[in-house]
Amino acid sequence: MPFTFGQHPWFPVHAGALVRSAASSLWLCDADGQAERQVPIPPEADYATPRPPPSGYRNVCYAGWDGQVDIAWPSDGVTISMVADSIFGNLMLHAPADGEPVFCREPQTAAPCAFDGLESGPAPGVHILEPGGRVSGRVLFVIHN
């Protein structure tokens, strides 16, 4: 069975929220959402230093990330660090189109649409599980205040 997995936590945008996560590249996707190739991260999409989450629709995938996302709400004096095992080689950033004041930072094993083209072999991050097979990874959430 082809298998990918990840976490999809939602976070509120309030109290001057800031996000930090370092990655080496960004996946470019086609019109159907299929990850096609990796490119350098443009400055407007780079979160290596803390910056506000996006204010409009975003659905992008980062590769080669350092395994840690820090989300701070300075006005509330709270920070969450999300630390993921290296099996989660991709990190999605999603903000909904409807303007809701929320966003996702999603550690996941594979890039978008990784099951497409399985007939030519699994894409990176897709695990082929034999009967009784297992794969695992851990994502830890640490709250600082």
Tell me what you see in this structure:
The protein has 145 residues and is mainly beta. The protein has a single domain (2-144), classed as Beta-galactosidase, Chain A, domain 5. It has strands at 2-3, 10-12, 18-20, 25-29, 35-39, 58-63, 68-73, 78-84, 90-95, 102-108, 127-128, 139-144. The radius of gyration is 16 Å and the shape is globular. The mean pLDDT is 91.
How are the secondary structure elements laid out?
Layout: E1 2-3, E2 10-12, E3 18-20, E4 25-29, E5 35-39, E6 58-63, E7 68-73, E8 78-84, E9 90-95, E10 102-108, E11 127-128, E12 139-144
Antiparallel strand pairs: 1-11, 2-10, 3-7, 4-5, 4-6, 6-9, 7-8, 8-12, 9-10
Keywords:
single chain, 145 residues, mainly beta, Beta-galactosidase, Chain A, domain 5, 12 strands, 0% helix, globular
The CATH class name reads Mainly Beta
> How big is the Rg?
16 Å
Mean of residue pLDDT?
A: 91
The CATH architecture can be named as Distorted Sandwich
Q: How many helices does DSSP assign?
A: 0
Ends apart, CA distance between termini: 42 Å
Largest sheet: 6 strands, antiparallel
Quick structural overview:
The chain has 145 residues and is mainly beta.
